[in-house]
What we know:
- By secondary structure, the chain is an alpha+beta fold.
- The chain is built from 17 helices and 15 strands.
- The chain has helices at 2-6, 23-34, 85-95, 174-178, 183-190, 198-213, 219-247, 251-272, 292-317, 320-326, 334-339, 344-349, 356-359, 380-404, 457-464, 472-479, 483-487; strands spanning 10-11, 17-20, 39-46, 49-56, 61-68, 73-75, 98-100, 133-138, 150-156, 159-166, 281-282, 285-286, 420-427, 432-440, 443-450.
- α7 (219-247) packs antiparallel against α8 (251-272), α9 packs antiparallel against α14 (380-404) and α14 (380-404) packs parallel to α16.
- The radius of gyration is 22 Å and the shape is globular.
Amino acid sequence: MIAASKMLSVRGNDGFDRVTVDAALWESLAEGAAAGLHDFSGIWLDRTCVSLLLVDSTIPLRLIVSLPVRDGCYPAVSRFHAPASRLERALRDLNLIEPVGLPDPRAWLDHGVWPHSKAGPGYAFLPSEGEGLHQIPVGPVHAGIIEPGHFRFTVNGEAVVRLEERLGYVHKGIAGLCVGADIERAGKLAARISGDATVAYSFAFALAVESALGVVIPPRAALLRGIMAELERLSHHVNDVGAICNDASVVALHARSTLIREHILQSAQSCFGHRLMMDRIVPGGVASDLSTDGRSNMEALLRQCTDDFEAVVRVYDSLPSLQDRTMTTGIVAAHLVKQFAAGGHVGRASGRAFDTRKDFPYAPYDGLNFTPALRGDGDVNARVWIRIEEARASMALIGEMLRRLEPGPIRADLPTDIGGEGAAMVESFRGDVLLALRLERGKIAAFHARDPSWFQWPLLEAAIEGNIVADFPLCNKSFNCSYAGHDM
């Protein structure tokens, strides 16, 4: 079905094919996603059309399918393909269009406090019936500085029978704020969708803008972008390994990993002027160059990180008590990561070999040789090892990109007062980030971003089922989904 649509489509500068379809073909493509013929990867509204992204990495093909909205309605994708449900509920909340046949009619981002809210009072969690069952509500306010999210556990003794999530508490209206903004302002907003993926979102925004405007960036800028992206990936994977160990009561590994991450952040500050490298990637290239001293700093960091992180890995791999907590805990079945097209460490730990850097390569990854980590166990331990292998790969990639750096410009000029549309998929440390936009006279006319967490949060519900309540923090940290990226 997706191949038939491709014949009618037009490919843009961004490598995405685009086609407008009727309701019958729209529903057929939704059925195709449910049958596993292609991956459903996002849905949004632009002007009078609702658009969905379908992906087939075997062809490879990324197809944006658009359907005109009639009388404020369109056929619900989730009527055929369950992973679309939360995205369509959010789409309805934000745009007041109705997905006809939506199986779950509850509001998602709308918590009943917006002007003209259509969400009813309260929120009806799904019922569970059985002898000895009781519920444990957790959140939305949590200890420490964790972002807000509500988790409703139905348990039998200590065993979790069902987990249902309620998110949307940190909705910021990013898309609405971007519309009408100039490129610089919108880029800063995109960089703040989820602070721990600020490089990835800035990268995706820049690629989308450059595609829309037909801009080609200098080779040095592309390599610097890659170095920043891998530094961001490295810092979070190292930190998450330690945090998972902390939730299994191995505090020393957490402290050691936190210290390694601090060295990475200090190096980012020294080399690029910001600990998180926020606003360092911009349309046209990068805002900060890497000096000779900065290059030496980065090479020293890699040597130190390699030694320190391998020490953490050796301890992790030698503690039976730690392995007992992580192995066979929080298993995500392979068929679920395929159904939800889950990316990043969640997908690759359960056998889904998808990595945007490899399947739909963009500069500088189109010129780099690496193999994404892959496991099939699908448990907490597998997600730890994916992170370990990705951290190792990031250090190797940074080293390779440093060796390839040649003197040259770091930014290309952007044309002004012209329009166009562009989309991009960029691999964040969590998985694939999607960003699509349309420009008119140098201003943002339409903006959509989709975090990988949209397809990972539901799988956390599946992962904890049958486990004990005390293992939820361990499972949750092994996913490390973004609240801010999801709620936007």
